[in-house]
Structures are given as structure tokens and as C-alpha cells.
Amino acid sequence: MREVEVVGVRVEMPTNQPLVLLREAEGTRYLPIWIGAVEASAIAYAQEGTKTPRPLTHELMQHMVVALGDELEEVRIIDVHDGVFFASLIFASGAEVEARPSDSIALALRAGARIVCTEDVLDEAGIQSTRAEDEEAERFRELLDEVADLPATVQVKLLR
After folding, report:
1. Model-level pTM?
2. What does the angle CA 31 – CA 35 – CA 39 come to, to the nearest 5 degrees?
3. Which of 68, 74, 92, 109 is deepest in the core (most CB within 10 A)?
């Protein structure tokens, strides 16, 4: 298993489909995963630390885990078939729950859990970065920093 970090979410043109971009913590590969708009918003909110007046679904899930006396320790991205990714939530109690990577990532960001990916998934779906791609990723991070300064309602519209 290789630890990965969330670079951010973006909308890919011309399909207008959101994706979450992960990067190897100690490596040069990126892992793009196509996700839904709701999950993209949830990940963006968590990355920015945006507070909502009432708990959104992933915040509710995190509150429930804590209320039940457990803790999310790790998210594992374990497989990919025909472009569909699979993940598992690993809890301190030893419980393991199958989940979509998008939901898992949104929850991991709220819980402070680490995210790991199998070597096989990175080999199959990962993209080896080049200097130009690293520069593009840095520009993307700068754009995310600029978007973070916008009101949350504008951020959500930008993700759609």
C-alpha cells in the first residue's frame, strides 16, 4: 500500500465531470478518480475546512462513527475495474466497510485518516507525472487556494 494525498477536485472539460486528484505521498504518480458533483463539493468543503450550518452527509457519518465510540483509521483504495474504483474504510475497532472512494475520501478528510492505495491500482490507473504536469498541478493548487477565498455557494457553483 502506498500513501496518497488529496491534491484537490476539479471539473474536467469538455465533459464537465468532476474528478478528485490524488498524488503519491512519496512518489511521482497521480491518481485521477471521476466522482459525482455532490462528492466533489464534500471533498472541497473538507479540504477548505468550510463549516456548514447543519451537518452534511459526510459530516453526519463522521459524527456517527465518533458517537458509536469508533474511529476511522484508514481509507484503502483497493481495486479498479473498467474505470470503477473500489475502497474500504478501516476502523480502529477492526471493522471494515466497503465504500466508494469519493465518499471514503470525503470522510477521511474529516476524520484525519490516512488514505492509501494498492500498488496494483496505481500501476493500472496512475499517471506518471512529468515536470510539466507537476507545474500544472502546482497551478491547480494555487487555483484551489484562490477559490478557497470565495464564498462557499460560489465554490459549489464552480464545481458544477
Report:
1. 0.80
2. 115
3. 109
